[in-house]
Every structure is written in structure tokens, then in C-alpha cells.
């Protein structure tokens, strides 16, 4: 059984016991979170959401992703700018899919 959930502006296909990294959630490690924006469960597809379906997950850790380097250059103009970005992420383990 799988489900498609939406969180942080992105969609994830998940099954039970999967571990995924999502945009930062305001939850402590070990806390349980529920994703109510379920777009599909098995062969049921919502329009846009599946009624009464939810996915529960346990927060494993809060961390930051690898640094992404942003480098801007304008040729022949002596213009160079270097910056970086590290996204805050939350690692969650899917514990259950309800409303199947």
C-alpha cells in the first residue's frame, strides 16, 4: 500500500516504514505528525484530496542539507559573487496510512 502526500510544496510517494526527508516541520524528535494532504491512496485518486485519508509519521531527526553553492559571474565585467545555502530538513519515518 502506498500513498502520495503533499508537504512543503512538494509531493512524495510513501509506503509504510519509508524514511523520507521533507521541508522543516515544527516538531521535536520522536514526535508524531500527521499529513492530511493526501493526494492518492493505492488506486484511489483524490480530486484534489482523498476524503478521510491521512498518513502518520514519526520525526526521526532535524538537520540541514548539504551546502549548495550559488556562483554569479558576468564575463568581462570583473563581477563575481559567491554564496551558499543550506536547507533545513526533517527526516520522518512513515508509521501508518489511514483511509485506504
From TrEMBL:
The keyword Ribosomal protein applies. GO terms for cellular component: cytoplasm; ribonucleoprotein complex; ribosome. The keyword Ribosomal protein applies. Keywords: Ribonucleoprotein, Ribosomal protein, RNA-binding, rRNA-binding. GO terms for biological process: translation. InterPro entries: bL21-like, bL21-like_sf, Ribosomal_bL21. Pfam families: Ribosomal_L21p. It comes from the Bacteria. This protein binds to 23S rRNA in the presence of protein L20. Belongs to the bacterial ribosomal protein bL21 family. This is Large ribosomal subunit protein bL21. The lineage of its organism: Bacteria, Pseudomonadati, Pseudomonadota, Alphaproteobacteria, Rhodospirillales.
Amino acid at each position: 500500500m502506498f500513498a502520495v502526500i503533499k508537504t512543503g510544496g512538494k509531493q512524495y510517494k510513501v509506503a509504510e516504514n519509508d524514511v523520507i526527508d521533507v521541508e522543516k516541520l515544527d516538531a521535536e524528535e520522536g514526535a508524531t505528525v500527521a499529513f492530511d494532504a493526501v493526494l492518492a491512496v493505492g488506486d484511489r485518486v483524490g480530486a484534489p484530496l482523498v476524503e478521510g485519508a491521512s498518513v502518520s509519521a514519526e520525526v526521526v531527526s532535524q538537520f540541514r542539507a548539504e551546502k549548495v553553492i550559488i556562483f554569479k559571474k558576468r564575463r568581462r565585467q570583473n563581477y563575481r559573487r559567491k554564496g551558499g545555502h543550506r536547507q533545513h530538513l526533517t527526516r520522518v519515518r512513515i508509521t501508518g496510512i489511514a483511509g485506504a
